[in-house]
Amino acid sequence: MSSIAQENYPRMSQLKRTTAEVHDDLDQKIMVQSPFASKQNYADFLRFQYLLLNHVEPLYNSHQLAPFFADLASRNRCHAIALDLQDLGMQAHTATQQINLDNLTLAQAVGWLYVIEGSKLGAAMLAKEVTQLGLDADFGARFLAGPGNGRGSQWREFMQAVEALDLTSNDEQELYQGAKDAFATAHQLLNIIYQ
């Protein structure tokens, strides 16, 4: 994040710093599996992504979060990834239990959203990779497609909404913990696919 971005988005910058190590570790664990080397590898990657997106789907239907993120429901990619799996003739891995919003504070839930929404930024690069397998936004890689208004614009809107939240210092710590918990869960779900 540039110094200008850090100045304009101090909360987001702190989120990035707080989760950098666990984020990098997750990326490395995924990439060592060569998810774009073959359709089978990509299918495993899709199954992991489905587990994660299915787990967090309640966030996108949350009445608690909706007032702060106007387009929340439309950001949900769970249906798209289910169609991608269907395109490849794959069944989704037996879904794990979905996140229980009753166990999360608003700040923790936003920390989770930060991780899932942030993953869309890397999807632009991954969408190019997957074309080598003959897949695209219409077949097999719907969940990697950007929104109509563009990834950058949607991410800026998300960042602005997070910065606008009225959080106490305790809430801030819950926000960071929520993001760390989301990455920890992603690691656990990855291990289910790549055991």
TrEMBL record:
<dbReference type="InterPro" id="IPR016053">
    <property type="entry name" value="Haem_Oase-like"/>
</dbReference>
<protein>
    <submittedName>
        <fullName>Biliverdin-producing heme oxygenase</fullName>
    </submittedName>
</protein>
<dbReference type="InterPro" id="IPR016084">
    <property type="entry name" value="Haem_Oase-like_multi-hlx"/>
</dbReference>
<dbReference type="Pfam" id="PF01126">
    <property type="entry name" value="Heme_oxygenase"/>
</dbReference>
